[in-house]
Design a protein that fits this description.
Radius of gyration: 38 Å
Strand order of the largest sheet: 6-7-16-15-12-13
Pfam family, one: SpoIIE
Number of strands: 16
Keywords: Hydrolase
InterPro entries: Bact_Sigma-Reg (IPR052016), PAC (IPR001610), PAS (IPR000014), PAS-assoc_C (IPR000700), PAS-like_dom_sf (IPR035965), PAS_fold_3 (IPR013655), PPM-type-like_dom_sf (IPR036457), PPM-type_phosphatase-like_dom (IPR001932)
Protein name: SpoIIE family protein phosphatase
């Protein structure tokens, strides 16, 4: 074998390899002699045994799907007019029954008397079209999911609003100003069971409470409603916060299966400025006094629904004129992108700016200072400002 023959064979091998990688082949039809030449890859594309030989142009229709015959007819008519290269896509059904998407580019071979033949490049684009269909379907499903998520968010927020309507502005109680916020998570699936309660009691004290039921979505919202409504009823007994927590713990243990919850429940005597409170696994309130923020020492208390064996204890905090107490659920400080201690530091720094300001507006500013709503968890805030004696 000469060096030239070796180069030709190497070039032919590389060309065949390129055709296989691109899943394309070439073909020529001599319109005068009837001679036809197909590359090896064209036989593979049509699923045709090379022993059977290539197909004349007119016989291609036997492979083409009926719905695509018009595209093939126009392609063949145009190329035989000898005008310019033309291309078309159509589907063929191979002998094994497999349907493939093909792109065919045909170019007339011209002579003075008119076209003498047709040169063609044929590519199997089935994989590409399948990927495009999958991508299109994925985009459609994503759009539907977004629409559905928006609708679900609207429903859940409306349900929460019905269960837990947020007061407009601050609550005015004797010698106190109280502001509350429910801050929904940015993600629909993360809407959960955070709640608050602030109300005057028949004996003149104020009930101040926040909590968070485990989980997200409608089940958490439903459990939140049961827990909060139970607290409102139990409060009428006049019992201290630790007893209220004990009863709520029994409710979670025996009626809300596979659920836990955190809570702070407190009674504020506006006349004496004594804040008596208990907690169940919740972050301790922040006290702002004389421009300095500190966390109150929490009494003993574990998650609601964890066990019925550990009693809840009480703490008593005597407040002063100008003090501010900030209660919040963990969604305010916990973020995937930062440590909880960093979140607490941000809250305490921002809380120092609350006294002496409009409390309702101050909570909005506090949320901005700590980085805005939590994308992945909702939160509740309850701020109490102690005023001077009337």
């Amino acid at each position: 074998m000469s060096m030239l023959d070796g180069d030709i064979e190497l070039l032919a091998a590389r060309l065949a390899h390129a055709q296989r990688l691109g899943n394309m082949g070439w073909a020529e039809w001599n319109l005068r002699t009837g001679g036809i030449v197909w590359s090896e890859q064209v036989y593979a594309i049509f699923g045709r045994d090379p022993v059977q030989g290539p197909l004349p142009l007119a016989n291609l229709a036997a492979y083409v799907e009926p719905a695509d015959l018009a595209a093939l007819d126009e392609l063949l008519w145009t190329v035989t007019q000898g005008v310019e290269p033309v291309q078309a896509e159509f589907r063929v059904r191979r002998a094994d029954g497999d349907v493939r998407n093909l792109r065919m580019v045909l170019e007339p071979l011209m002579a003075p008397g008119g076209p003498t033949g047709v040169h063609g490049v044929i590519q199997d684009i089935t994989g590409r079209r399948r990927a495009e269909r999958i991508m299109s379907e994925s985009r459609r499903q994503l759009l539907e999911a977004r629409v559905q998520a928006a609708e679900e968010r609207h429903v859940m927020l409306a349900l929460r609003e019905a269960i837990l309507p947020e007061p407009v502005g601050c609550l005015d109680l004797p010698h106190t100003r109280i502001a509350v916020r429910y801050v929904p998570a940015e993600k629909t699936a993360s809407l959960g069971g955070d709640w608050f309660e602030a109300a005057a009691l028949p004996d003149g004290r104020a009930l101040l409470a926040i909590g968070d039921v485990s989980g997200h979505g409608l089940p958490a919202i439903a459990h939140m409603a049961q827990l909060r409504h139970a607290l409102v009823g139990l409060t009428m007994t006049g019992e201290p916060p630790n007893q209220l927590l004990t009863w709520l713990n029994d409710l979670v243990l025996h009626r809300l299966a596979d659920t836990t919850a955190t809570a702070i429940i407190g009674h504020l005597d506006a006349a004496t400025r004594v804040f008596t409170w208990g907690q169940a696994g919740n972050l301790a309130p922040v006290l702002v006094r004389d421009g300095v923020a500190s966390r109150l020492a929490p009494p003993r208390g574990i998650l609601l629904g964890a066990t019925g064996e550990v009693p809840y204890q009480l703490a008593t905090t005597r407040l002063r004129s100008g003090d501010l107490v900030l209660m919040f659920t963990d969604g305010l400080v916990e973020r995937r992108t930062r440590d909880i201690d960093e979140g607490l530091d941000l809250v305490m720094t921002a809380a120092c700016k609350l006294p002496g300001r409009d409390l309702d507006e101050g909570l909005d500013r506090l949320l901005e200072d700590i980085g805005g709503p939590n994308p992945e968890d909702d939160a509740c805030l309850l701020a109490v400002g102690i005023l001077g004696t009337c």
